[in-house]
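Example (one chain per record):
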Amino acid sequence: MQPLPTGADIDQPASLEIKEITDPEALIPVSITTNRAPVKTAWAFVVSERMGFDRQEALSIAHVFVHFSSMKHALMLGNIYNKQETKEAEEEMSELPDGAKWIKKKPEPAWNGKKRRRDEPKETEATQSSQPWVGLLRAK
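Predicted structure:
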């Protein structure tokens, strides 16, 4: 192991200037890959502050928002948690207002007389909404 660099050994960028791309045509080939949790946290934090919550409350709301939406998404995918984690997550979701209906399985659609093509995906729980915060914010 080597010691961390100090003083003049640290590579510093020549400039911290950000060169914005404002031409829409230049943005077409640009792509960004990111984890959605930090983006959702930042969004929920800004929305909460704009709703009048102080910084601490807004951070708490953002954390809860991301926690429950991620848990709901994982439960709907069905292959993320092991059996014990799934049971704990379902218990946690059921403690929320209307939480029990968020973890219900989507019923199989009634047969409409048409055969499903092989390449047509079967409807699964993942097609349900993964937005449990809608109920928390009293939106309809």
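Caption: Residues 124-128 have pLDDT under 50 and may be disordered.
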